[in-house]
């Protein structure tokens, strides 16, 4: 729940920032000189890119949460079987062992979104965020095409 609140606050702050930057871009364009119009257009591009990025991330999180809820209803969410260090961090050898099993499961069923979801969780536990995101994107895409 704390992650959702943090995400919502961050998104709200970004939207305020986009509005402020966008208003400055409009003011620059209204000044009417070629230089200020060029700067104004350049400044307006940044909020557009930011809004697109925020939307795509929000869509990704929403879809991943939807998959997690569906998998939970099916009783297929991965169980946290990782060993932890005294500091609370995940033991690397334990994460590697779980990751190897999840990868083999995904190789055995490459068209099953559930195995890709569990692989994404294993990547996340191994602190490999880029691959975790790609695996989750694959799970989302497979779920969209599944009956």
The portion of residues assigned to helices is: over 70%
The arrangement of helices and strands along the chain is HHHHH
Radius of gyration over alpha carbons?
21 Å
Mean pLDDT: 90
Q: What coarse outline follows from CA principal-axis ratios?
A: elongated
Classification by helices and strands: mainly alpha
Number of strands: 0
Extract low-pLDDT stretches: none
For the sheet with most strands, the description reads: none
Give the count of helical stretches: 5
Strand content: under 5%
Distance between the termini: 31 Å
List the keywords.
single chain; 147 residues; mainly alpha; 5 helices; 80% helix; 0% strand
Brief write-up:
The chain is 80% helix and 0% strand. It has 147 residues and is mainly alpha-helical.
Q: Would you give an account of this structure?
A:
With 147 residues, the chain is mostly helical. The chain is 80% helix and 0% strand.
SSE diagram, text form:
Blueprint: H1 2-31, H2 34-73, H3 92-108, H4 113-125, H5 129-145
Helix pairs in contact: 1-2, 2-5, 3-4, 4-5
